[in-house]
Amino acid sequence: MTLADLASHAALLWLIAAVVLAGIELIGPGVFLIFLAIGALVTAGITAAVPGVPLALQLGSFAMWSVVAIGIGRRWYHQFPVPSDDPLLNDRAARLVGEVVTVTQAIADGTGRARLGDSEWIATGPDAAVGTRLRVVAVRASTLVVAPIPPPR
Question: Dihedral of CA 10/25/88/95: which sign?
Fold first, then answer.
């Protein structure tokens, strides 16, 4: 098969590329290859409608339509986020907010150390003696911001 033969079947090749990309997306979902599949599918449609489109324009079309599909997809996922059982799964700092820590090095002049789980962290907050239990209210860089635990009502 010569290069001219391949060029005559460009629409079919782009369609195959779209199906392969979509298939890979189904096997290992990552919500990215589907946008490239859309770009390949649109390019297949263009090359079928306008025979003889040069390869450079086909590749440009694929790139452009892939970028357009990615942009639309990003906007869609920002407007309609996918619900999650654990929305803080990949946000370690946010997962720490609300946890109770024990002061291991007295917090004096706003800085000390506190134990959270099996780790010891730099902690900032109101002065507190060793052994005091405090609640994490924020995390800034690798420093816990702590506050007193309010008494039960």
Answer: negative
